[in-house]
Amino acid sequence: MALLLKALRFSADKHRDQRRRDKQVSPYINHPINVATLLWEEGGVHDIVTIVAALLHDTVEDTNTTNQEIQTLFGTDVLNVVQEVTDDKSLEKAERKRLQIEHAPHKSTRAKLVKLADKICNVQDILYMPPQTWSTERCLEYVAWSEQVINGIRGINPILEAHFDQLVHQARQVLHAKKTA
């Protein structure tokens, strides 16, 4: 429990000035909390390394957090998962997206679980709280790309995969209706 609370405090501090791009401009920390909560509550994932990594999954990619900080504070196992789900921001966005699809099947079980929960939360946000500046077409493209990533990790958690599939179906219906309205 101490490690979990430490990760929550660390992530909240690192993301303190960040906001989501939704209409409400929600605090960014809500996202990693939602990812960890989804894994625990719906996915039945009670592995502390996976849950801590879920709380920290965007810190290296989106803040000034270093790999060394993660390793020192949370250990090598957590660092390994965080590294597996962290995009290389020095690459172009299209290349990062392509690599996520290509590398997804080769991730560890823990990283696959974090990736799956992350994509579920992101598709859910697109459905209920989309980024203000995103067009319907861009939202549809994100949903399609997410599905390609998740197709590479299927078989890891049937409950979460079914949840993802349901959200994708719902998002497509809603977004296509918006597009034709």
TrEMBL record:
<dbReference type="InterPro" id="IPR006674">
    <property type="entry name" value="HD_domain"/>
</dbReference>
<dbReference type="InterPro" id="IPR052194">
    <property type="entry name" value="MESH1"/>
</dbReference>
<keyword id="KW-0464">Manganese</keyword>
<keyword id="KW-0479">Metal-binding</keyword>
<feature type="domain" description="HD">
    <location>
        <begin position="28"/>
        <end position="123"/>
    </location>
</feature>
<dbReference type="Pfam" id="PF13328">
    <property type="entry name" value="HD_4"/>
</dbReference>
<protein>
    <submittedName>
        <fullName>HD domain-containing protein</fullName>
    </submittedName>
</protein>
<dbReference type="InterPro" id="IPR003607">
    <property type="entry name" value="HD/PDEase_dom"/>
</dbReference>
<dbReference type="GO" id="GO:0008893">
    <property type="term" value="F:guanosine-3',5'-bis(diphosphate) 3'-diphosphatase activity"/>
</dbReference>
<keyword id="KW-0378">Hydrolase</keyword>
<dbReference type="GO" id="GO:0046872">
    <property type="term" value="F:metal ion binding"/>
</dbReference>
